[in-house]
Design brief:
about 160 residues; alpha+beta; 8 strands; globular; disordered N terminus
C-alpha cells in the first residue's frame, strides 16, 4: 500500500513539475514578446531618434522608445521606424477621449533643436487599423497646415531654466 501511494505521489510531482515548467516557458516567451513589441527591424536596434524632453507652448512633451507623454495624456509607443519618421501608439486605458485606441504619428527631421509632428491616424480599434489608415500629412508648410487641416505641432528641445 505504501509503495502504491508513493508511486502516485511521484507521478503527481512529475506532472506538477512539468506543468510548472511549461508555465514558466510560456511566461518567458510572453515577456520577451512584450519587451520587444516596439522594436522595428528598420531601426537596427537604434533608439527612437526624437527621444528626449521637448517643449510645446510651455508644456513638456517627452518621447522615448516606449512612451509619448504630453500635457494632454500618455501613450505607449508600439512600433517605430526612424527611417520613415513614423511611430504607432496606443492611448492609455484611462484616456478621456480614446482609451486604449491606436494611432499613427509622423515627424519632420530635427533642425535647430526643433521638429514638427502630426497625428495622422487616431482613435483606431486595432494596431492594424492604424497601420492601414491611408491619411497623409504635408510638411511643406507645417506652421500653417498639412496635418488634417491644421498646423503641425512644433516642439523645441527643452532647456531647464535656471
Amino acid at each position: 500500500m505504501f509503495k502504491k501511494k508513493l508511486f502516485f505521489f511521484l507521478i503527481f510531482l512529475i506532472f506538477f513539475y512539468l506543468g510548472a515548467c511549461e508555465d514558466l516557458k510560456d511566461n518567458n516567451n510572453e515577456i520577451e514578446i512584450n519587451n520587444n513589441q516596439n522594436i522595428n527591424p528598420n531601426n537596427n536596434g537604434k533608439d527612437l531618434e526624437i527621444s528626449g524632453t521637448w517643449e510645446d507652448f510651455g508644456n513638456k512633451t517627452i518621447f522615448d522608445n516606449e512612451n509619448f507623454n504630453t500635457a494632454y495624456g500618455q501613450s505607449s509607443i508600439v512600433e517605430y521606424d526612424n527611417s520613415g519618421n513614423t511611430f504607432f501608439y496606443q492611448m492609455s486605458a484611462d484616456d478621456q477621449y480614446n482609451p486604449g485606441k491606436y494611432g499613427k504619428l509622423v515627424w519632420t527631421e530635427i533642425e535647430n533643436d526643433s521638429f514638427y509632428y502630426c497625428l495622422i491616424a487616431y482613435g483606431k480599434e486595432t494596431l492594424e487599423e492604424a497601420k492601414d489608415d491611408t491619411a497623409t500629412a504635408d510638411s511643406s508648410n507645417p506652421d500653417t497646415g498639412g496635418c488634417g487641416g491644421f498646423a503641425w505641432s512644433k516642439v523645441t528641445k527643452f532647456v531647464e531654466k535656471k
